[in-house]
């Protein structure tokens, strides 16, 4: 009887994929409504800041969240970022001034940088799959060089 084939991706990997999909879906579904919301507040000239503040602060937060993940642990940082993003989503209806709205976008963007940074999918891939992936990628080393494969 043949041994069952091991799956290259663990259940944890698929849960992380689902978690990331729902996380990104949560603020991307909100995005099409934000320009109209800002226009109703009288901030027509600030529509460009909706994406700019969010993206800029998400990019700025990545090194900090990475350092925090190395210090505190990846799971607490991921949970913190997800929780702050979740809470920020509920504050949009109460952001009644343009300044308050753009400040909320700033905080929302900063917390959004935490989840993707704190999770590395390579940890959730089966070792055998990592070995085969590493062996199948072309190497820039000379053909006589020996590759070191992660365990």
TrEMBL record:
<keyword id="KW-1133">Transmembrane helix</keyword>
<keyword id="KW-0472">Membrane</keyword>
<feature type="transmembrane region" description="Helical">
    <location>
        <begin position="46"/>
        <end position="65"/>
    </location>
</feature>
<dbReference type="GO" id="GO:0022857">
    <property type="term" value="F:transmembrane transporter activity"/>
</dbReference>
<dbReference type="InterPro" id="IPR020846">
    <property type="entry name" value="MFS_dom"/>
</dbReference>
<dbReference type="InterPro" id="IPR011701">
    <property type="entry name" value="MFS"/>
</dbReference>
<dbReference type="InterPro" id="IPR052714">
    <property type="entry name" value="MFS_Exporter"/>
</dbReference>
<feature type="domain" description="Major facilitator superfamily (MFS) profile">
    <location>
        <begin position="12"/>
        <end position="151"/>
    </location>
</feature>
<dbReference type="InterPro" id="IPR036259">
    <property type="entry name" value="MFS_trans_sf"/>
</dbReference>
<feature type="transmembrane region" description="Helical">
    <location>
        <begin position="77"/>
        <end position="96"/>
    </location>
</feature>
<keyword id="KW-0812">Transmembrane</keyword>
<dbReference type="Pfam" id="PF07690">
    <property type="entry name" value="MFS_1"/>
</dbReference>
<feature type="transmembrane region" description="Helical">
    <location>
        <begin position="12"/>
        <end position="31"/>
    </location>
</feature>
<protein>
    <recommendedName>
        <fullName>Major facilitator superfamily (MFS) profile domain-containing protein</fullName>
    </recommendedName>
</protein>
């Amino acid at each position: 009887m043949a041994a069952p084939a091991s799956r290259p991706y663990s259940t944890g990997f698929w849960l992380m994929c689902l978690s990331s999909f729902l996380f990104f879906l949560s603020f991307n579904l909100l995005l099409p409504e934000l320009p109209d919301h800002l226009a109703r507040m009288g901030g027509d000239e600030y529509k460009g800041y909706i994406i700019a503040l969010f993206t800029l602060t998400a990019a700025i937060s990545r090194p900090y969240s990475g350092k925090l993940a190395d210090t505190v642990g990846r799971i607490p940082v991921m949970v913190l970022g997800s929780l702050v993003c979740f809470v920020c989503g509920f504050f949009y209806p109460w952001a009644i001034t343009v300044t308050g709205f753009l400040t909320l976008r700033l905080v929302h963007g900063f917390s959004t940088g935490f989840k993707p940074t704190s999770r590395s999918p390579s940890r959730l891939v089966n070792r055998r799959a990592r070995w085969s992936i590493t062996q199948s990628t072309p190497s820039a080393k000379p053909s006589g060089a020996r590759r070191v494969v992660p365990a």
